[in-house]
Amino acid sequence: MEYFVQQLINGLTLGSIYGLIAIGYTMVYGIIGMINFAHGDIFMVGSFIAMILIVALGITAGAGFIVLILALMLVLLMAMLFTSAWGWTVERIAYRPLRGSFRLAPLITAIGMSIVLQNFVQIVQGARVKPLPPLVSGGYTIMDGNNFDVQISNIQILILVTTVVLMGVFTYIINKTALGRSLRACEQDRKMASLVGINVDRTISLTFVLGAALAAVAGFMYLLYYGVIDFYIGFIAGVKAFTAAVLGGIGSLPGAMLGGILIGLIETFWSGYFSVEYKDVAAFFILAAVLIFMPSGLLGKPEVEKV
Amino acid sequence: MKKLLMTGVAASALVATAGIASADIVIATAGPMTGQYASFGAQMQAGAEMAVADINAAGGVLGEQLVLEVGDDACDARQAVSVANQLVGEGAVFVAGHFCSGSSIPASAVYDEEGVIQISPASTNPAFTDERPGPGIFRTCGRDDQQGEIAGQFLMDNFPDAKVAFIHDNTAYGKGLADQTMAFYEQAGGEPALYQAYTAGEQDYTALVTRLKNEGINVLYVGGYHTEAGLMKRQMADQGMDTVLVSGDALVTDEYWSITGDAGEGTLMTFSPDPRLNEEAAPVVAKFEEAGINPEGYTLYTYAAIQAWAAAVEEAGSTDFDGVVEALNAGTFQTVLGELDFDDKGDVTLPGYVMYEWTGGEYGYYEEAAAQ
């Protein structure tokens, strides 16, 4: 039982990070029907920006608790800001000029942008891994087993709480604000939305900005949790998050979060009880099985092809 | 026309030097003097030059002076063969080389055919001696497959009652290392508690770590590279585990410590012994340092190869191939690596690997660290 709970915590933490990245994929797909393959690399850029800020501000674990939390909040906000600028720029130079073009064109530029971002960071930051000493340490023992204590670290609590809060904020933005209303309108029918006075280009740009901001949060937490990043982390995390978005139903926000958490849990439990080697096989097998019976994913709406 | 004339002059000059050299004994070192691995070639050249200078200063071999030729194979198999032919053409009777196993192996066929002794100071691939074309092929460095033997025996000797898990990353290097170590561990009477493969290039090993914790693993042997091993060590520390991580030579990089931080304390790994620490090497090391050279890496292995050959020639009384081979097989040689002899295959009998330990951001011999 203790072992199960510990693996559950591991899986939820990993799944939260996947989920936050997956939202970026699903939002862009929902609104313009393309897969933004550069999104995983935006996440990586966010992680690097957070690391640069932490090093530049000289934040160390030695600072007092309150100072540390405030400093990290500042880093997170700045990282979201800068990463959003990256997301906006990518959309502006690589996708918007191709908006009227045939469907595969932005897909190809997305792959191109992914390569550009990866290589840019590799050249600017070097190919070696960048380690960060642990900043947030400590944790709690929540269950006392005979020879196995279930532990949840402060950083895991931070990740889980941040994810829940962000999901709440996001649901509010989408459902209750004017921005959310224009997002939903563009998603349903872009031409009609523009006829009723919605600035479609601006709304699409904002989608990329929001997605990149969430990717920055994921990158920031990834950096704090694992402490090691390199220019290539965006690829694997991006593939997993994209899978999560498809599993949950691409285009659906709660679906992306659900898919992320499911992928995290499947990977963790498969490694925990069966073979570590085959965890990806297990995750993709379940994805395939779900798509056979529910072609639009777990929470996706079956829809007619958009024109 | 002028050019042709110059070439002619150069050619006769070459003949002239060759004529003078024939009175001495020509030996050679060959390795990557240019290209990606040029720093290793430079180590070999420095070691060889120093050895030849020292031997000549002490009266040479059989009363004759040694002349050193340097060949550049750039770690390329084809270039290695042509360099080997070139060195044979220059009359070399002994070659301390090459560096890359991929160069040493094809070159060894040339040397064997031409009756030249080859002692590689750096080629660690087992095939170099296992499949040697003739008896004149030796090496002064360890073999790749000794790592598992040393580590397997070490685990049994030092952690007899511990639960030991073996994991690898499914690469040729990692899986080979883990399998070999596990085989020797089992041979020594150990029972592995867990054997798993993991995916390299990921960041999250918490599921694996929790599993190790649940099974009460005390010692984790990782066949893989420093990034993943470092992440595992860090995540084990996060989960409050004091499991000892043991691995191979891939962990001998400062990057490992920068990933783990203090969590890396006590990590063990097998790596070639550092001959600079040998007592026998102290005067030679001092000499190198005086000349502004750090005798790191393969410098002293090259030096020792030439020492062993020179001693064997003295023993045999001539530079004749058969006599020197016999002397090399039979003799025990005092070198900067310590007392060494060669086994039936031409491998050196020195321990090719020893256990190192990470402490306080530095790595050093395990015994030394334990004694402190």
CATH architecture of chain A: Orthogonal Bundle
Structural class of chain A: mainly alpha
- Count of distinct strands of chain A: 4
Any idea what the shape of chain A is?
globular
User: How many strand elements of chain B?
Assistant: 14
Name the poorly predicted regions of chain B: 13-22, 368-372
Q: Using the coordinates above, name the CATH class of chain A.
A: Mainly Alpha
Name the assembly state. heterodimer
Q: What is the percent of helical residues of chain B?
A: 40-55%
Mean pLDDT across all residues of chain B, rounded?
Answer: 87
Q: How far apart are the first and last residues' alpha carbons of chain A, in Å?
A: 51 Å
Which protein chains are joined by the largest interface, and how many residues does each one contribute?
A-B, 35 and 29 residues
Q: Which key features would you list for this structure?
A:
heterodimer, A: 307 residues, mainly alpha, ABC transporter involved in vitamin B12 uptake, BtuC, two-stranded antiparallel sheet, 11 helices, 72% helix, 5% strand, B: 372 residues, alpha/beta, seven-stranded mixed beta sheet, five-stranded parallel beta sheet, 14 helices, elongated
